[in-house]
Amino acid sequence: MNSNPQNIPHSAPSPLERAGVRLVILGAGESGVGAAILAQQKGFDVFVSDFGIIKEDYQAELKKYAIPFESEKHTEELILNANEVIKSPGIADKVAIIQKLKALSVPIISEIEFAARYTTAKLVCITGSNGKTTTTLLTYHILKAAGLNVGLAGNIGNSFAKQVAQENFDTYVLELSSFMLDDMFAFKADIAILLNITPDHLDRYDYQMANYVKSKFRITQNQTSADHFIYCDDDAEIKNYMATADIKSQKHPFSIEHKVENGAYLNAENLMINLTNTHQFDMTINDLALQGKHNTYNSMASGIAAKILELREGTIRESMGSYKNIEHRLEFVANISGITFINDSKATNVNSVWYALESINTDVVLIMGGVDKGNDYNMLKDLVKQKVKAIICLGKDNKALHNAFEDEVEIMVNTFSASEAVEIAYHLAKKGSTVLLSPACASFDLFKNYEDRGNQFKAAVKEL
């Protein structure tokens, strides 16, 4: 199904184009450097500025293309004269340079918005508070297995803008965060997927859940009746917003709680995809590579997208059965003396930990902690009571964890390194149980990032 039959770019071209027009890029990470390469290719006067230290490999890439840049500063006279600014999603609106640009009415957009101006490829776009990386990679896996000429970008993989500049993909699967969506205006997705909405990053949304919900629903903006919106019909925030939303695209709900029309649902242990004017697809959930309730949702969303794209059912079934999950997300590490070790270091919010605990059917020794983002742990208490035999705190300040859980578990231990946490967990766990690293917190107190935390955990397990 060609969702873009007229080969129209997915974001309106800037009225500023092009020669002599100054485009300033704030942030020189993957997205910023990629945007700079595309902007230079399109003839803009490009300048890149990063208030932090630009990594050596990104500096080398900018030098290769002779793109001017500055590191560890924002020089206002080189930035405020911009005709348009592309902003890294990590830069908050309250930052001084952004406020000054807004006071001058300089348009500020995301790399995704910019790159979409220069491609006519089909765009499958995925957002949600949890599960978006898994669903993005599963969707990419299915499309690639079906023989599509497909790229992977957004919050994962290589820069979308750089791929638009240097590759020639017919389809892209894009993982989009709310921060990216906030700086997207004329962008349009052919297929939009919204997995769930739970409280996260509320500090960027004035601690107003309604603002965060609106941000997530920006994935449907500019869609027409030729486009598709896939969404979870079991999510309260999504259902509440949908009740009054004016969404013009074709709607495809998915649910594990009730039967739906023109979407996906469970019939006993069978995943059913029943789209209008297509053959009904079914697959036992026991054959899915990704197990657990949350992963059934992820598989439903990916499966609907594959059916919309009219892929062969055999390919969809085989791909959903063969997919390997991403590193640091419910990643099996080892089974030692009958104890299973799982690395879920990417679980940096409470809802992710809930999903992890829900998917495990054994007793759990839970390793959690780090930089607390003002977490509300109440939603975990029932699962912790049912499954968790001990909590090992891995962080510099564990007060919030003790306040939340010391009445729910018999044993709580404070540790300050991955090796110490793993060694204690091994002694506390029994044969047949699971040691789960699922922190609910950022990693910056003891580790470089969640990957470093996960890698140190895996290394410590292998030392046992």
TrEMBL record:
Q: What is its EC number?
A: 6.3.2.9
Where does this protein reside within or beyond the cell?
Cytoplasm
Q: Which domain of life is it from?
A: Bacteria
Cite the GO molecular-function annotations of the record: UDP-N-acetylmuramoylalanine-D-glutamate ligase activity
Asked if the Swiss-Prot or TrEMBL record annotates the protein with the keyword Ligase, the reply is yes
**Mur ligase central domain segment(s):** 126-305
Gene3D superfamilies, alphabetically? Answer: Mur ligase, C-terminal domain, Mur-like, catalytic domain, NAD(P)-binding Rossmann-like Domain
InterPro entries, alphabetically?
A: Mur-like_cat_sf, Mur_ligase_C, Mur_ligase_C_dom_sf, Mur_ligase_cen, MurD
What family is it from?
Belongs to the MurCDEF family.
Question: Which HAMAP family is this protein grouped with?
Answer: MurD (MF_00639)
UniProt function note: Cell wall formation. Catalyzes the addition of glutamate to the nucleotide precursor UDP-N-acetylmuramoyl-L-alanine (UMA).
Instruction: Spell out the protein name for this chain.
Output: UDP-N-acetylmuramoylalanine--D-glutamate ligase
Q: Which organism is it from?
A: Pedobacter alpinus
